Amino acid sequence: MGFTRFYFPLSLFCFTGLVLRHVYAFPVRNPNQDFVDAHNAARAQVGVGPLSWNHTLAAYALNFPTRNGTLGGPYGENLAEGYGLMTGEEAVKFWLTEKQYYDYHSNSYVEDECLHFTLVVWQKSVHLGCARIKCHNGWMFVICSYDPPGNIEGQRPY
């Protein structure tokens, strides 16, 4: 879930020993709040209740490299990657660009490119935990875990 074909080769490159495992420090008072605020703003736009921060999910997201770069498991997960500094707000904004590919009326995905968006707004998810992982080569990975997981086939996200 939440892993696009475009990003897989870059992810594999980073996870072949170049990972520095830590939550990247940002010059913000509460670095987790940008994730929560960005998610909850998107959820409010489609009439879905807010998510709350969960430290267990954040720890799970932080362990992404030890899972050999695999997503999913017991939680729904989104991944964003890019070069340089990436805030939670920027990652969520990136995932929300897929909204245009989701057709609510038919509950279908145009071009199969909206699973990041639907995970952000999945109405049954209530907890969120995210981590930022910076590689030695400068790539930044943002992983968000959701509980309960979303993107259940046949169910509407909202």
UniProtKB/TrEMBL annotation:
<dbReference type="InterPro" id="IPR035940">
    <property type="entry name" value="CAP_sf"/>
</dbReference>
<dbReference type="InterPro" id="IPR001283">
    <property type="entry name" value="CRISP-related"/>
</dbReference>
<dbReference type="InterPro" id="IPR018244">
    <property type="entry name" value="Allrgn_V5/Tpx1_CS"/>
</dbReference>
<dbReference type="InterPro" id="IPR014044">
    <property type="entry name" value="CAP_dom"/>
</dbReference>
<dbReference type="GO" id="GO:0005576">
    <property type="term" value="C:extracellular region"/>
</dbReference>
<feature type="signal peptide">
    <location>
        <begin position="1"/>
        <end position="25"/>
    </location>
</feature>
<protein>
    <recommendedName>
        <fullName>SCP domain-containing protein</fullName>
    </recommendedName>
</protein>
<feature type="domain" description="SCP">
    <location>
        <begin position="30"/>
        <end position="154"/>
    </location>
</feature>
<keyword id="KW-0732">Signal</keyword>
<dbReference type="Pfam" id="PF00188">
    <property type="entry name" value="CAP"/>
</dbReference>
